[in-house]
Amino acid sequence: MVKVNGTQMEIAGVTVAEFLEKNGYDRTKVAVEINLDIVPKARYDSTVINDGDSVEVVSFVGGG
């Protein structure tokens, strides 16, 4: 199991890019952290989410 934004999910084995696409995230408008380390956008296609990881996906929101 993988904890994503506080929710347990069965997504181990997929890349960050695959996870974002399958869950409707725009990869240009989010930051991804795995186990307290920020994943560079250039590594989304090669970074695999493993069982036991803690993933945080943060969306950028403009305001004024």
Task: Characterize the structure shown.
This protein is mainly beta. The protein contains 1 helix and 5 strands; from the N terminus they run ββαβββ. A hairpin with a 2-residue loop joins strand 3 and strand 4 (37-39).
Mean pLDDT value: 95
Quick one: biggest sheet?
5 strands, mixed
Radius of gyration: 11 Å
The number of strands is 5
- Give helix % range: 10-25%
Alpha-carbon distance between the termini? 38 Å
Number of domains: 1
Which fold name fills CATH's third level, the topology? Ubiquitin-like (UB roll)
Shape: globular
Helix-strand pattern, N to C? EEHEEE
* Beta-strand percent range: 25-35%
Helix and strand content put the structural class at mainly beta
What is the CATH C level class, in words? Alpha Beta
Unreliable spans are none
Topology readout:
Layout: E1 2-4, E2 7-9, H1 16-22, E3 30-34, E4 37-39, E5 54-59
Parallel strand pairs: 1-5
Antiparallel strand pairs: 1-2, 3-4, 3-5
Task: Please outline what is shown here.
The chain is mostly beta strands and 64 residues long. Helix content is 11%, strand content 31%. The chain has one domain: Ubiquitin-like (UB roll).
